[in-house]
Every structure is written in structure tokens, then in C-alpha cells.
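Sequence, please.
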């Protein structure tokens, strides 16, 4: 409420403009009239037939501003009653938030629910007109496009080859750090992931060139920051972030295209992801789409879970010790050659990394459970249906907040506690209901990058723990109390809530080398 008695900003604006520019009176009337009609239409379309469905707060016309700015908090009321649906609008599109086991099974398993259409609308503001939607050509075709392209990159022999380069990348960056000092995990560990993701999914012309890597990193963050409320909800010309996002997308597209075109033109063959994609007969357009999708689907989740894994470990020293023992024994079994610790780790077979690190696996699952903040999205491409009491018409959108399972006390007792012991056979939440662990997706859309992302996290954790002793400190150099927790509303990095934390580290290869001798 303001001094003139109104809490509506457009009325204030109207009063102000009429006082200053009386000749604009009729224009202002038209503008306000249009605004009121739009408000009426937004409310009318969103409420129709939804009895017992919670309406989440939103700004008239624009819709759910806080879905973009504070997503986890915004969706919290939707989780109060499992099985009840809620809804909100993104401009004129209706989004139904579903919860509970029955809706979860449909959300992840229904053949007419399209993932790409969901994300394109909600995060990029694009949408296909309902009359042009075809469940077979959309939901069906989109299903396996990325998985098909990534398949040559996640074969054992490709991963084995790329692991040498990945460890060399890790070594080079870690070598550039001082012998002892302070790291900011949400920056420094995150940057490692950026390099590794480019190494594994693009061309060596990119991943070998630090200036190109940092150029792509700048474009990537411009595009990511352009996912804010103003860019999606305001008309295109009103948001500078939206503009920057569009420009960055075009520049990224042409940068990647230039690299591919030059490779094709030169006829040169290289041992990298681009070569695999070309040898598989993919078109330049498909490879560009794949490369950009891999960056956006891969970097944020892998980046933040890689650094949170290390934070959780030092905040839970008994697990850090267990993991150190597991990694030492692992290196003792496989990495006994000569050379640096990273070259020995690189020689270890991929299958051993995947099958013989159960403590690491449990720590990764627990880190994902506590940090994952993405909200899976879908669009109903088929007939109208009802989920959790909400009418979901053809063309409507759906969201499923993963906290509905990951932070439910009934599946994960004391849900905010880091406890990798939960994944032992006797305590598995998976036995209590369908799809209670969604760290790597489920149903028709499991994460096709999971294999690579898990290896990346393991490589970083193992090498970091072998090369450095580290402890978590706050800005004053003290152990943070309470232990840090991620701000999951921070959609890009999930930085610690409240005070910043650092790793105080010193270089050491002694622990790992001792075990091997
Ligand atoms: C720690 C890292 C990662 C986590 C936690 C993660 C998690 C997930 C989850 C939960 C989904 C399902 C989303 C949904 O149902 O809407 C998903 C899908 C997907 N992920 Fe990942 N992911 C990670 C890394 C990666 C990487 C590195 C890539 C690519 C190189 C990737 C590519 C994808 C793609 C393309 C999809 C969509 C699949 C489809 O359309 O069916 N992810 N991921």
C-alpha cells in the first residue's frame, strides 16, 4: 500500500502520467483497459475447472515471477499435501505442478508428455501453437535424439581414451593452483567441470584453447542469466538480460558452427567427440544442437554437485575418511604404475571406476538428493486429462518438484542430513514407493549424460583428495558452524546459504603414494 491508498503499481503510474501529461489521458485509459482485460483472461483460463487445486501466487498478466527468481521457495506450498496439484501461469500458458506417487508415475512415464516442449516454453519462452502439436512427431521424436548422439561418446573405449585427456586437464588446472592456499569451491571446482564437459562433448580445437573456453564460458553464463523472470515474462524488448541471451545464443551457435565447418573443410581427423559425431553421419546442424544441449543439460548439475560433494565430505568427516580409504585401496589395486598420480588414475579401467567405488557412489547419490534444484517440466501433447484433481488440457505444461520425493521425511528420514548410509540395501527409499530417487531422472527421460557426469565427479573427487589435504573454512578461517547448506534458489551455482565458504588446502601426494608402495 502507498500514500495514495493503492497497492497497484499501474494505478500509480497512471496517476503520475496524468498529472504530468494530461494530453495522454485517453491513451492511459486504453492501456489500463487492455491491462484489465488481459488480467481477466489470464485468471479465467487458469482457474477453469480446477477444483481443489492450489493456485500459487503470481503477478497478474506476467505470471509466476518468483518461479524464476526463487524457484524452490515458490514451489514449497505445492508440496504440502502429497498428491494434490497446484497451478500457476507463465504469461498465457498454464503450468500444473503435480506431486504424489500416481502423478509422478504419469509425469515420468506418459508417452504424450514432451520434455523438450516443456523446457522450451518455461525456460526459453518459446511455444508451439496447439493446432500444430503432434504427439507422435514431438514426444516420440524428441525422446531419443540426444541419447542417440551421445551414445558413441559414452562407449567404454571412448571414455577410456577421453579419461587420459580429462586427467591431463585436471592436472594442468590443479598444477596452476598455489602449493597451499584458499579455493572458492563454487568458482574453482565449477570451472574444472566446464573444461571437462567441453573436452568430452566438443572438439579439441575448443577444449585445447583456453581463450575459446573462456569465451564459451562467458556466452554460456550470458545465456544462463537470461533465464531470469524479466527475460521470460516481459515482452522481448524490455529485458536487457533477454537481449544479451539472444545475442549470446547466436554467437555461441556461430562459434560452434565455425569449428565444425573448418574441421569438415580441412578433412583433418582428430581423436575427439566431434570426430565421433561426424563419423556417425550426423549433420552439422544436429551436432551444433547436441553441443549446445550438452552444455546446458550438463554443466550446472555436474558443476554444483562436484563441489558440494567435497563440501559435504569435509562437513562429515567419517564419510571423508571412508572415502579416502576406499580411494586408497582402489589406487592400490589398479594404479600401481609409475608416473604422476593423475596418469595412474587415468589408467584405471572405466568399469572399475563404475563398479568398485560403492562409498563414492553413495556419497554422490546423497549429494544429488540434497543439491538438485532443477524442476523437471513437460507439455501435454495429447488429449486432455486430469492429474491430482487438475485439468491438464492438450498444450498445457506440467512441473514435478523433485523435493516431493528427495526431501520427504517418509522416504528419507531426517531429510536434510547428509547420510550416504541411506543407500544400503536395508534402508533403500526405492523400496518404499515408485521412483523415490530421481537424481538421474526416471521413466522415459533418464539422464543420457549420467555415465559421463558420474565419472567426472569421481575423477575430480579422487584426484583432488589425493593431491590436496583440505578443510572447509569461512571467511574468518574458522570451521563453519552450522555446516553449510546449498541455497537451491540460486539456480546457477547453488552457493552456500549465508556466509561464503572456502577450501583451505595444501598440496600433498603423500597419502596416496604411501598406500601404493
Ligand atoms: C550431476 C550431473 C547431472 C545430473 C544430476 C543430471 C540430472 C538429470 C535429470 C534429473 C534429468 C531428467 C530431467 C527430466 O526428467 O526433466 C536429466 C535429463 C537429461 N540430462 Fe542430465 N544430469 C547431469 C548431467 C548431464 C550431462 C553431463 C549431460 C550431457 C552431457 C546431461 C544431459 C541430459 C539430457 C540431454 C537430458 C534430457 C533427456 C531426455 O530428453 O530424455 N546431463 N538429467
Amino acid at each position: 500500500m502507498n500514500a495514495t491508498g493503492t497497492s497497484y503499481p499501474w494505478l500509480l503510474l497512471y496517476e503520475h502520467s496524468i498529472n504530468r501529461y494530461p494530453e495522454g489521458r485517453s491513451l492511459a485509459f486504453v492501456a489500463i483497459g487492455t491491462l484489465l482485460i488481459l488480467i481477466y483472461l489470464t485468471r479465467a483460463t487458469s482457474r477453469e475447472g480446477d477444483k481443489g487445486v492450489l493456485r500459487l501466487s503470481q503477478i497478474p498478466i506476467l505470471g509466476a515471477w518468483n518461479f524464476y527468481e526463487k524457484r524452490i521457495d515458490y514451489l514449497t506450498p505445492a508440496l504440502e499435501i502429497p498428491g494434490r496439484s497446484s497451478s500457476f501461469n507463465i504469461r498465457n500458458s498454464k503450468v500444473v505442478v503435480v506431486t504424489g506417487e500416481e502423478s509422478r508415475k504419469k509425469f515420468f512415464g506418459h508417452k504424450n508428455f514432451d520434455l523438450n516442449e516443456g523446457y522450451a516454453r518455461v525456460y526459453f519462452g518459446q511455444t508451439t501453437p496447439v493446432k500444430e502439436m503432434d504427439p507422435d512427431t514431438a514426444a516420440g521424436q524428441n525422446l531419443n535424439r540426444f541419447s542417440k548422439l551421445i551414445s558413441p561418446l559414452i562407449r567404454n573405449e571412448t571414455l577410456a581414451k577421453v579419461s587420459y585427456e580429462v586427467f591431463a586437464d585436471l592436472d594442468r588446472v590443479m598444477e596452476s593452483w598455489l602449493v597451499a592456499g584458499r579455493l572458492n569451491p563454487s568458482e574453482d571446482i565449477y570451472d574444472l567441470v566446464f573444461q571437462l564437459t567441453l573436452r568430452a562433448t566438443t572438439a579439441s580445437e575448443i577444449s585445447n584453447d583456453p581463450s575459446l573456453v573462456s569465451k564459451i564460458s562467458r556466452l554460456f553464463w550470458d545465456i544462463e542469466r537470461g533465464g531470469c523472470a524479466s527475460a521470460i515474462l516481459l515482452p522481448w524488448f524490455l529485458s536487457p538480460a533477454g537481449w544479451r541471451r539472444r545475442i549470446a545464443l547466436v554467437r555461441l551457435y556461430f562459434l560452434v558452427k565455425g569449428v565444425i565447418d573448418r574441421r569438415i573443410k580441412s578433412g583433418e581427423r582428430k581423436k575427439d567427440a566431434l570426430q565421433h559425431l561426424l563419423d556417425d553421419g550426423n549433420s552439422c546442424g544436429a551436432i551444433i544442437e547436441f553441443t549446445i544441449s550438452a552444455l546446458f543439460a550438463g554443466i550446472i548439475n555436474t558443476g554444483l554437485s562436484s563441489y558440494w560433494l567435497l563440501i559435504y565430505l569435509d562437513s562429515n568427516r567419517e564419510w571423508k575418511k571412508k572415502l579416502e580409504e576406499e580411494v586408497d585401496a582402489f589406487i592400490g589395486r589398479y594404479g600401481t604404475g609409475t608416473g604422476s598420480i593423475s596418469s595412474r588414475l587415468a589408467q584405471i579401467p572405466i568399469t572399475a571406476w563404475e563398479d568398485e567405488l560403492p562409498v563414492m557412489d553413495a556419497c554422490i547419490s546423497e549429494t544429488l538428493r540434497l543439491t538438485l534444484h532443477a524442476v523437471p517440466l513437460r507439455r501435454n501433447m495429447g488429449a486432455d486429462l486430469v492429474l491430482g484433481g487438475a485439468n491438464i488440457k492438450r498444450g498445457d505444461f506440467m512441473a514435478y518438484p523433485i523435493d516431493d520425493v528427495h526431501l520427504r521425511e517418509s522416504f528419507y528420514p531426517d531429510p536434510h542430513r547428509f547420510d550416504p548410509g541411506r543407500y544400503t540395501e536395508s534402508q533403500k527409499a526405492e523400496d518404499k514407493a515408485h521412483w523415490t530417487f530421481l537424481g538421474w531422472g526416471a521413466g522415459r527421460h533418464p539422464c543420457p549424460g549420467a555415465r559421463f557426469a558420474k565419472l567426472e565427479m569421481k575423477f575430480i573427487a579422487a584426484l583432488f583428495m589425493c593431491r590436496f589435504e583440505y578443510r572447509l573454512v569461512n571467511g574468518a578461517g574458522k570451521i563453519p558452524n552450522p555446516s553449510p547448506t546449498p541455497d537451491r534458489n540460486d539456480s546457477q551455482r547453488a552457493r552456500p546459504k549465508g556466509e561464503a565458504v572456502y577450501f583451505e588446502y595444501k598440496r600433498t601426494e603423500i597419502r596416496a603414494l604411501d598406500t601404493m608402495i
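Residues 9-141 form one domain.
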